[in-house]
Amino acid sequence: MARKKLSSLTDLEIDIMNIVWRLRRATVRQIVDSLRDQRPLAYTTVQTVLSILNQKGVVRYTREGRAFVYTAIVKPEGVRREVIQAVVDKLFAGSSQSLVLHLIESDALTAEEAESLRNLLDRVASEESDD
Q: Would the pLDDT of 57 be above 80?
């Protein structure tokens, strides 16, 4: 089965994936326990979401005793890239520059983040001038 678009992951699926990525190998119980403070969920709810993620080709599982142990098939960077690209395409007419300008103009960046962005842009400009 072909992997579905990563940008179609729901907020809950992303929350669960963040735990799977952090733990590298996770049981349903570990995920339920990790989510308890921010988003208390029933064991069966997490189990169902993991089944959906498996069908989407995002996680795989192995059976260890009575527990299913889930591991990520996709990397977080790939999900971030695809989700951000979907936002850029849908809300900024495909312009990454418009997204960055929006973030800067909306005061979403701290001074430290702005300095880091400035350094990154300087480095990219320097590398392009070396080519």
A: yes
Instruction: Return the minimum-mean-pLDDT range out of 70-74, 105-109, 126-130.
Output: 105-109
HSE, CB side, 13 Å, CA atoms: give it for residue 77. Answer: 0
In the β-sheet with 67-72, what is the strand arrangement from edge to edge?
Answer: 26-27, 67-72, 59-64
Q: Give me 102's structure tokens.
A: 């929006």
Distances (CA, A) of 53 to 6, 46, 122: 10, 10, 40
Distance in angstroms (rounded) separating the CA atoms of residues 48 and 124: 44
CATH among 3.40.50.2300, 1.10.10.10, 3.40.710.10, 2.60.40.10 for 6-72: 1.10.10.10
Q: What is the pTM of this model?
A: 0.77
The kind and range of the H/E element at 51 are helix 43-55
Task: Work out the mean pLDDT of the chain and round it to a whole number.
Answer: 91
Task: Report how far apart, in Å, the C-alpha atoms of 55 and of each of 49, 67, 104, 128 are.
Answer: 10, 18, 38, 42
Return the domain boundaries, the chain: 6-72, 92-130
